[in-house]
Specification:
This protein is α/β, with parallel strands linked by helices. It folds into two domains: 132 residues, Aspartate/ornithine carbamoyltransferase (Rossmann fold, 3-Layer(aba) Sandwich), CATH 3.40.50; 160 residues, Aspartate/ornithine carbamoyltransferase (Rossmann fold, 3-Layer(aba) Sandwich). The protein is built from 13 helices and nine strands. The strands form two sheets. A five-stranded parallel sheet has the order 7-6-5-8-9, with helices on one face. A four-stranded parallel sheet has the order 2-1-3-4, sandwiched between helices. It is globular, with a radius of gyration of 19 Å. The mean pLDDT is 96. Bound molecules: phosphoric acid mono(formamide)ester (CP) and norvaline.
Length: 307
C-alpha cells in the first residue's frame, strides 16, 4: 500500500495493523523517534485545519522528519498549475505529501503522479486519519470487541461518515448512520463498503430516526451540519438537520455510559448542545488527541516502511 486516499483501499489486516501501531506509538513514542530521519513531508492544506495540521506537523517532527507546510491558497493546485505538474515537481523534494482538498479526484490525481506516498488529510468524500483515531478512541474507552458495540452517527452523510462506514465495514461493528433524507451517504460508496461488511460480519444501517437509533447506543457521534465548502447552504441545512441535534433528551435514550464523540470543530447549539459536549459522557478531546497517533501510524507505515 503506497497511499492512504480512503480506508477502503486497505485490507482489514492493514487497518488493524494501523490501529495497533497507533496504540503502540502512544504507549512508547520514543521507540519511533528516528523512523523519519532525513525525510521531508509536505502538508498541503487547501482548507482550514486545527487538529489535522497539528497532528501531522507534530507527528512528522516527533518521528524525526521535517514538515513542510503549505497554507490554503499557497499552492493553488489545479488553478496556478496543473495537479500533475505540482506532483512531479514535489516528487524531487519530498518523501510524502499530506493533502487536504475539496474534490477527492484531486487527491487521486496527485497520488497517480507521485511515486511517494500521498495521505488524505480530508477531502469532500473521506477523512481516513479521523476514522482511525475515532476507532482507536472507542477501543481505549470501551474495551469490548467492536461487534459488541452499537455506534450511532447522527448528521450529514459526509466525508467523516463515509470513513466511519469504511472502517466499521472492514473491521466489524454495529454502525448506524442517521441522516435526514437527501443527506444520506453516497450510494456507490455505501454499496462498496457493504461488500466488505459481508466479509467482516459488521452491520451497517442507514436510517432517518435518531430517537429510534440511539436506543441502547454505546457511542453517539456527530459532525457539523455544514462542511467546509458548503457555507452557502447554511440556512437550508440548519433547517433540514434540526431534528438531528445531539442534546440531553436524545442522550438519555442511550446507555448510561454512552460515549459522545465529535470530530470537531463543533458548532455548539447546532449539531450538539453545550451540556452534552461538556458532559462526562463526552470524549471529544481524547478523540482529538488521538489524531496525533493515527497520523503517526500512517506516517510510520507508509513513509517509514515499518510493517
Ligand atoms: N477533525 C478535524 O479534521 O479537524 P480540523 O479540521 O481542525 O483538522
Ligand atoms: N465534515 C467536516 C469535517 C471537519 C473536520 C468538513 O468537511 O468540514
Amino acid at each position: 500500500m503506497k497511499d492512504c486516499l480512503s480506508l477502503e483501499d486497505f485490507s482489514k489486516k492493514e487497518v488493524e495493523r494501523l490501529l495497533d501501531l497507533a496504540m503502540r506509538i502512544k504507549r512508547n513514542p520514543k521507540k519511533y523517534r528516528n523512523v523519519l530521519n532525513g525525510k521531508h513531508v509536505g502538508l498541503i492544506f487547501e482548507k482550514p485545519s486545527l487538529r489535522t495540521k497539528t497532528a501531522f506537523y507534530v507527528g512528522v517532527s516527533k518521528l524525526g522528519g521535517v514538515p513542510v507546510y503549505y497554507s490554503p491558497g499557497e499552492v493553488q493546485i489545479g488553478t496556478r498549475e496543473k495537479i500533475s505538474d505540482v506532483a512531479k515537481t514535489l516528487s524531487y523534494f519530498l518523501d510524502c505529501v499530506v493533502f487536504r482538498t475539496f474534490e477527492h479526484e484531486n487527491i487521486k490525481e496527485l497520488a497517480a503522479n507521485m511515486p511517494v506516498p500521498v495521505i488524505n488529510a480530508l477531502s469532500d468524500l473521506t477523512h481516513p486519519s479521523q476514522a482511525l483515531a475515532d476507532v482507536m478512541t472507542i477501543m481505549e474507552i470501551k474495551r469490548k470487541p467492536l461487534n459488541k458495540l452499537k455506534i450511532v452517527y447522527i448528521g450529514d452523510g459526509n466525508n467523516v461518515c463515509h470513513s466511519l462506514i469504511n472502517i466499521f465495514s472492514l473491521i466489524g461493528g454495529n454502525f448506524y448512520a442517521v441522516c435526514p433524507s437527501g443527506y444520506c451517504p453516497d450510494k456507490k460508496f455505501l454499496d462498496e463498503s457493504l461488500e466488505n461488511s459481508k466479509r467482516s460480519g459488521s452491520k451497517i444501517t442507514v436510517t432517518h430516526d435518531p430517537y429510534g437509533a440511539v436506543e441502547d447506543a454505546d457511542v453517539i457521534y456527530t459532525d457539523v451540519w455544514v462542511s467546509m465548502g458548503q457555507e452557502e447552504e447554511v440556512k437550508k441545512r440548519r433547517s433540514d438537520f434540526k431534528s438531528m441535534q445531539i442534546n440531553s433528551q436524545l442522550l438519555a435514550r442511550a446507555k448510561k455510559n454512552c460515549s459522545v464523540m465529535h470530530c470537531l470543530p463543533a458548532h455548539r447549539g447546532d449539531e450538539i448542545t453545550d451540556d452534552v459536549i461538556d458532559s462526562a459522557n463526552s470524549v471529544v478531546f481524547q478523540q482529538a488527541g488521538n489524531r496525533l497517533y493515527s497520523a503517526m501510524a500512517l506516517l510510520v507505515m507508509l513513509v517509514g516502511g515499518v510493517k
